[in-house]
Amino acid sequence: MSHHGGTPKASTWVVASRRSSTGPRAPERRPVEELNRRGPEGYSVGRGSRWRGPCRPPEAVAAGHEEPPLCFALKNHFVGAVIGRGGSKIKNIQSTTNTTIQIIQEQPESLVKIFGSKAMQTKAKAVIDNFVKKLEENYNSECGVDTAFQPSVGKDRSTDNNVVAGDRPLIDWDQIREEGLKWQKTKWADLPPIKKNFYKESTATSAMSKVQADSWRKENFNITWDDLKDGEKRTIPNPTCTFDDAFQCYPEVMENIKKAGFQKPTPIQSQAWPIVLQGIDLIGVAQTGTGKTLCYLMPGFIHLDLQPTLKGQRNRPGMLVLTPTRELALQVEGECCKYSYKGLRSVCVYGGGNRDEQIEELRKGVDIIIATPGRLNDLQMNNFVNLKNITYLVLDEADKMLDMGFEPQIMKILLDVRPDRQTVMTSATWPHSVHRLAQSYLKEPMIVYVGTLDLVAVSSVKQNIIVTTEEEKWSHMHTFLQNMSSTDKVIVFVSRKAVADHLSSDLILGNISIESLHGDREQRDREKALENFKTGKVRILIATDLASRGLDVHDVTHVYNFDFPRNIEEYVHRIGRTGRAGRTGVSITTLTRNDWRVASELINILERANQSIPEELVSMAERFKAHQQKREMERPQGRPKKFH
């Protein structure tokens, strides 16, 4: 950049770089003609510089400037913002102040020179200072930076080396935690108190002795429980063996149950209802198809209706149900409508649905939100939904939500839900990740699980295993579908969307009526496919694991695993789609050489469920074990072991 006398003859604004050397060196001079050769706008990016801007117009050069340039330093990370995209910001400053601005990039800060009259120089500097100040304020507020600590952060490295550690300000974490707690109290201070206990124990339930209660639990799938409260443990309530025992004081609930035609509660419902109705946080661990949805819905209706506010002034929404998939969300909403209670309104919020319609429903006012974490987080961040009045929270199929990577969205959502809420969590498994989630978001919960915490398949399903080759898998499935009876209904599970489409096309070309369900289909098509399968219009559904959770079709007679799932947990969830609501079912699973890693785990599942184990499967497990031992012996010493 060059200038003659006091007038710059380079560009209107230039970001150059003074190269470091052992001695002082003048800025590199670039004549106007050289810069003009760089293009119609004069932009160029070169080594050691950020921008070299458009050339200064000849008339501006001729005009000259009597005043010496006004010089000041600018932090390098603000240079790009001051220049703006394509120089838009700095051009605007120059035109409004009638000045010429040059920026020379140096270390640790850039040098800004403003040419023009003294008054205009001052004005241009004030504009830049105000702009930089706003940038700093925005940065500090977004990052949560305490300005008291900024001087030590912004120093040059050479200065920092001379500062003793004791001179630097120390962060008082205790004070920060204390201020955080104060802020939390202020945030929730104006909310009304929550009423949680609505349980009135029946005579029959209270008359049950401890021996009788323990005997009942053992006979009903070996129900076990634990109190996760610190200190003195509470006694688990006796199970409610009939609907009257649980809801004798709530005739509207009893009326809905009678309409549905239920005879008696499922084991998980019998033990969960007296806990939830007392306002205690609950973790319910049970396999799919055991009635976990009504475990939280029925008490939730009562909880909402009896909160200590006038009905016309009810704070909405009051109940939130988070589910991993849209199918499960729609199913839960269907249950809400089926057991409609005292005019409570619900809305289903999920990705793939019409966002504007969902927002409109929320604006009308709802009592219950059933949502997938992604879409609800979107509406929450854009202030379309207020979760401040949620007093009853459900994390349904928590293990699946964590498997799908929804934990960050769940964390963001729960920041806006009052901490003294009642929380119910359901899960089909009890891995460490779910345990950790429960520790974070439930307060002194009780855990009830049906069977064992180890993975066990539903005992009402007969499991058949076929060890075959990839080439023969199709013929096995085709033979099965051709031999289906008129009353059979089957879900065929595949591993990928492309496989689902391929099988669907082949079966349709073979005049076999089917529907398919996977994530790439439009939401309305998925809903239509599920409706056709539920009503029996089609009896074959090709599905990915998207449908392995929450797909509640009671009359599914068979599950066919065309592809083995990615892990043994998904296998259990898949076959749990049949043998539901007191019925029995059959699963058929084809395994190939590609699946031999899961053979041993599958044998354990079959043994626990008292199922027959094919010799081919045992042989496959032995071959894989031998293969692993051989690889272990052949591995060079010092080479790290791979973990699967």
TrEMBL record:
Which SMART domains does the entry mention? DEXDc, HELICc, KH
Keyword rRNA processing in annotation:
no
Residues forming the motif Q motif are: 242-270
UniProt lists the family membership as follows: Belongs to the DEAD box helicase family.
Annotated transmembrane regions: none
What sort of enzyme, by top EC class, is this? Answer: hydrolase
Q: What is its EC number?
A: 3.6.4.13
Which reaction is the catalytic activity of this chain? ATP + H2O = ADP + phosphate + H(+)
Domain DEAD-box RNA helicase Q positions: 242-270
Q: Which residues form the Helicase ATP-binding domain?
A: 273-448
Q: Which Pfam families match?
A: DEAD, Helicase_C, KH_1
The name of this protein is RNA helicase
Q: Which UniProt keywords apply?
A: ATP-binding, Helicase, Hydrolase, Nucleotide-binding, RNA-binding
Q: List the biased-composition ranges (Basic and acidic residues).
A: 26-40
Q: Does the keyword ATP-binding apply?
A: yes
Query: Which parts of the sequence are annotated with region: Disordered?
Result: 1-54
Q: GO molecular-function annotation terms?
A: ATP binding; hydrolase activity; RNA binding; RNA helicase activity
- Where does the record place the Helicase C-terminal domain? 460-621
Which superkingdom does the taxonomy of this entry point to?
Answer: Eukaryota
